[in-house]
Amino acid sequence: MPRLDWEIYEMIERNPFFKHIGFELVNSSEEEILLKLSIKTDLLNTNKTLHGGVHASMLDTVQSIALRSLYQCPVTAMNLDVHYFAPANTGHLFARAKLLQKGYKMAVLEAEIIDENTTLIAKGTGTYKIVRNA
Amino acid sequence: MKLPVTRSTFFEYLGFNSTKTDTFHLDLPLQAILLQDDGTVHPGVFSTMLDISMGATASLETNSFATTIHLNVSFFDLSPKENYHAKTNIVNIEGKVITAEGIVYGQDGAVAAKAIGMFKASPIKQ
Asked: What are the Thioesterase domain coordinates in residue numbering (chain B) (predicted)?
């Protein structure tokens, strides 16, 4: 994947939801985009574990950034599929995405969330529309 | 009469409102913090809304805590609307596994997102 340029960083800076949840972009090399989330109380469900919506948000976010970096244009989510494997309630989580299919108008990725001990927390796939000439 | 139901911290953090009559009602007044840089609603917001709506309905239906094990969401319209409402239908209950389907509607009645989810019922922590 091409190196993230300033436009991607600017996009993150101007993304209120990204900041509200507390995502951090910790690696943006050509080979990998790595997203980090430090779990805070605000993100927990009534069972005091990370809310399922946070996993979904994190997977979508890392996939979107990877695609915007690759295509250098806006993308929009069409479908997101998430499997939840283990609960998390403290520490840091990390998400990375992998491109499965690069089309002209659509792309498919898979992404996973692991914790500091590399335990697989959640895994998902996403289908995105490539918004060319936006 | 509408009765409030249990709310998580994440529920409050994103600004949801819920009530329960015979069914679980979930509403979301849109705020700027829920948007992406291009002004559209972050897909994670609708994913969260559907997870809450389906999970709470599954929980009420089985008198248990419903843990999400699978969630599939299709997004149809991410353009911002002032208010959203989510509805859930329980599709199947087999043992401890509940399958539900949920829809997020904009204030104009158009479908913004639709999901199917699987939840595992477990005892509610006291």
From this structure: 39-112
- CATH number, domain of A37, equals 3.10.129.10
What is the share, in percent, of chain B residues with pLDDT greater than 90?
A: 79
A14 φ/ψ angles, rounded to the nearest 5 degrees? -95, 15
Q: In this predicted model, what pLDDT tens digit does every residue of A86-109 receive, in sequence order?
A: 999 999 999 999 999 999 999 999
Asked if residue A86 is part of any domain, the answer here is: yes
Cβ of A82 and B32 within 8 Å? Answer: no
- Has residue A1 been placed in a domain? no
- Which of B10, B36, B67 shows the shortest C-beta gap to A54? B10
Domain count, chain A: 1
CATH architecture of B9-122: Roll (3.10)
- Whether residue A52 lies within 8 A of chain B, CB to CB, comes out as yes
